[in-house]
Write a structure and sequence with these properties.
With 779 residues, the protein is of the alpha/beta class. The protein has 26 helices and 21 strands. A 7-stranded mixed β-sheet has the order 10-9-11-12-14-13-19, sandwiched between helices. A 5-stranded parallel β-sheet has the order 1-2-3-7-6, with helices on both faces. Strands 16-18-17-20-21 form a 5-stranded mixed β-sheet, sandwiched between helices. The protein is globular, with a radius of gyration of 29 Å.
């Protein structure tokens, strides 16, 4: 549906040709690197120190588990132990070649990545930035008995920063309040957003679309940075990862459809440690010899794919350095496969019955640390850099790291656990932004903003109300972008996004492939890195394709990060039946997401509320799921031209009554008002409450009404079993029992699947007639 591109196929005999993928192309010696200026004595020792720090940390965990770590002989460690021992060169080497403003994302086996990111950023920081970092972490300096002095040398400042970094890493692993995520994230979710670590992820592959979205955000904001996404070989058979590869490689980024021809600034780093838990990627659970071949399915340039010796820290660093060069030219993304090995099992409870000793010994013979130590001792560094590195230098560095780790582990073990009262702190961000930063405020549109006529009663339909909300917020704030399936030229399946493309250009309004999970994850990454994305999923039936990203990513990162980050995004989707679309396009699935803490859930019923609540949702600092009932789109309502917001979490009494309360939302609001009108003629005065927001639920308005009427029925279009109707009923029962004069009633769809046949669908869906019947029959 892009007129600029003609979709024409000429049938002629030919064959598809693929570029080759280099394997282990790095052929330099360490002396070559020294001569070329790529490595200095200091940087060489930094790489060794970072690998030592990773292995020392993880050796500690392995020893603690069996009571052999002498500094903490009696410490009871509670938590996961997914160790990356053997993979140190991949973490240290790759992160050493990215910049101080670059981001990483990582997997559940991400201790090494987190350690390397912190270490590398400390070494890269200039003196002013390092002092600022230490000042911001004063409380942690004091916890380990350190302080900053005006007489501190650069080396002393770095050492203090490394101590704090090690302390906070271990504190997070131990579940302590001084951990990077205040102890609530733990080792599988460790993150330091201040230094560009967007989080480790316990869901295999779950972080890859987040990284993709972060890279899309960088591209859009034209920042001079990139994302290094490190994920295991097992992740690259996961659906959301394949969706992410496709999103990152979309041609529109580089072919001129968007304003700037610039590819996504991202490296997909496949950390191939040979095992997806126990399954072997080669020879067992895939049909590939190298996972790098995946790139051929997504880009004609194969994402510049390369297979790298992940046991050689210099080869890894070189490959990432070259990849960064490709990205800076606008030709990203890049895919690199690092061939490495984990010496331990999936976790320390893994009996390793699926591999033999000979295989392990062969990999250990190429151990990244010992091999690098040998190279360093043979390397010829200039006298101006301190001359050659000796065995004594190496042993001293090893001891320094070991002693530092032991001391910081003791401090972490003695540190306080989070207070009980903080258990649910940071579940939601409390910030709602009123002002747009100047550099994003009132961006110039691509064409004049459209104006939509009202009828003689100053009414427009709900479809236009939604569109106006998006247009106004995009005109107000350059950080607001919108994307989804068919929302650009086509205007969305229901015409809601018509006019947006010509008004704001394809940089801010664009299509993506049919990739519900990928697009939601990308929105999370965008939100984490400063944008306020609106992602559209055509039908709410399709959100089940994306529940992993909705529930395990969007909903959780404010909490799991200990409040370091918020996720300001809106997921718009349509809801409900009445059009004969049957079981996979007609459901009302709001209860799926109301069960997930960390999400706000909105389901308006009028044109006025569609606009006012959507504007509030876009400005909110939390992920909001915004349900739009398809049958309401054509409903007319008074929608002011001037600015207004409807607060999230506030119900509205649409009709006052004294005999019974009807609690409803979305399409059943109109039906409830019709029912109330019918009941009124029969002498029954019904009060109708449109809750508008499901999470947070305005229970106080409901309680006040029920205390007045003594009777209540709760209704929506969702099926009754495990419905949000039942949640509302429970809350009423808990709060209003003494005021109830009769059992609470509920009306939803029967516990079945929406049928297509017109007569059956009418029987299936609740409506005003059924509501009147249940009220008269029960009361």
């Amino acid at each position: 549906m892009v007129k600029e591109i003609k979709s024409i196929f000429e049938c002629k005999k030919d064959s598809l040709k693929f570029k080759s993928i280099p394997v282990c192309s790095y052929g330099k010696s360490i002396d070559d690197e020294i001569a070329g200026g790529s490595i200095t004595r200091k940087k060489a020792l930094n790489l060794l120190e970072h690998m030592y720090m990773i292995r020392t940390l993880e050796d500690m965990l392995a020893q603690i588990k069996v009571g052999l770590y002498k500094p903490l002989a009696k410490f009871n460690y509670v938590g996961p132990t997914h160790l990356s021992i053997g993979q140190e060169a991949t973490a240290a080497g790759s992160i050493s070649s990215i910049g101080i403003d670059d981001y990483i994302t990582s997997s559940h086996r991400g201790h090494g990545d987190a350690m390397a990111k912190g270490c590398s950023m400390i070494k890269l920081a200039d003196d002013s930035s390092l002092l600022k970092l230490l000042a911001s972490r004063q409380v942690y300096l004091e916890a380990i008995g350190e302080s900053i002095s005006d007489t501190d040398s650069r080396e002393e400042l770095e050492e203090k920063a490394l101590k704090v970094h090690t302390y906070r890493m271990i504190a997070e692993l131990f579940g302590k309040a001084h951990g990077y995520c205040r102890g609530v994230g733990g080792g599988m979710h460790i993150a330091d957003f201040e230094l560009g670590h967007l989080g480790a992820n316990a869901i295999v592959g779950g972080h890859v679309p987040i990284a993709t979205g972060a890279a899309m955000s960088i591209r859009y904001k034209e920042e001079n940075s990139m994302v290094l996404c490190l994920a295991g070989d097992g992740a690259f058979s996961n659906g959301v990862v394949l969706e992410s590869l496709n999103l990152a490689a979309m041609a529109q980024f580089k072919n001129g459809l968007m304003g700037k021809k610039f590819g996504i600034p991202m490296i997909f780093g496949i950390v191939n440690n040979q095992y997806a838990m126990s399954g072997q990627s080669v020879g067992e659970i895939t049909g590939l010899d190298f996972m790098a071949r995946r790139a051929a399915g997504f880009s004609t340039d194969l994402m510049h794919a390369e297979v790298v010796d992940g046991m050689d820290v210099l080869a890894v660093a070189d490959s990432v350095k070259r990849a960064t060069g490709i990205i800076k030219k606008g030709d990203g993304p890049v895919l690199l496969e690092f061939m490495t090995y984990r010496y331990k099992g999936h976790s320390l409870s893994d009996p390793l019955t699926y591999r033999d000793r000979e295989e392990l010994d062969q990999w250990k013979a190429r151990d990244a640390i010992s091999t690098y130590e040998k190279k360093l001792k043979k390397a010829k560094f200039p006298a101006s850099q301190g001359a050659n590195i000796t065995e004594k230098d190496i042993k001293a560095l090893s001891k320094k790291v070991s002693d530092r780790n032991a001391a910081m582990a003791e401090y972490a073990a003695a540190a306080d656990f989070p207070e009980g009262k903080s258990m649910l702190t940071h579940l939601f961000s409390q910030k709602t932004e009123d002002r747009v930063p100047k550099k994003y405020s009132n961006p110039k549109p691509a064409s004049p903003l459209p104006e939509y006529k009202r009828d003689d009663s100053d009414k427009i339909n709900a479809r236009i109300a939604v569109r106006e909300a998006i247009i106004e917020e995009m005109a107000r704030d350059r950080r607001v972008i919108t994307f989804g399936e068919d929302i650009a030229d086509y205007g969305g399946a229901f015409g809601v996004t018509n006019d947006l493309l010509k008004t704001f250009s394809r940089d801010r309004v664009f299509n993506v492939s049919i990739s519900e999970a990928g697009m939601v994850g990308a929105a999370v990454g965008m939100a984490m890195t400063g944008l306020k994305p609106i992602v559209e999923i055509m039908y709410n039936d399709f959100i089940m394709q994306a529940l992993g990203q909705i529930g395990n990513q969007a909903a959780k990162w404010s909490y799991m990060s200990g409040g370091q980050i918020s996720v300001p995004m809106v997921l718009r989707t349509t809801i409900g039946g009445g059009k004969g679309y049957a079981g996979q396009h007609s459901q009302s699935l709001e209860a799926l997401v109301t069960h997930i803490p960390g999400l706000k859930v909105v389901a308006p019923a009028s044109a006025y509320d569609f606009k006012g609540l959507l504007k509030s949702a876009i400005r909110d600092d939390n992920p909001v799921i915004f349900f739009e009932q398809q049958l309401i789109y054509n409903s007319l309502g008074i929608v002011p031209r001037e600015e207004y917001l409807v607060p999230i979490g506030k119900a509205k009494v649409l009709k006052e009554g004294k005999d019974i309360t009807i609690v409803c939302w979305s399409y059943m609001v109109e039906q409830s008002l019709k029912a109330a009108e019918t009941l009124e003629k029969e002498g029954i005065s019904a009060e109708v409450i449109d809750i508008r927001t499901l999470i947070p639920l305005d229970i106080d308005t409901i309680i006040s009404s029920v205390k007045k009427t003594g009777k209540v029925v709760v209704t929506s279009q969702e099926v009754i079993q495990s419905s949000f109707i039942s949640e509302v009923v429970t809350r009423i029962q808990e709060n209003c029992f003494d005021w109830l004069d009769a059992p609470i009633q509920r009306l939803g769809a029967p516990n079945g699947i929406p049928p297509s046949a017109e007569n059956l669908e009418k029987l299936f869906l609740p409506d005003a007639e059924k509501l009147v019947r249940i009220i008269k029959g029960k009361y």
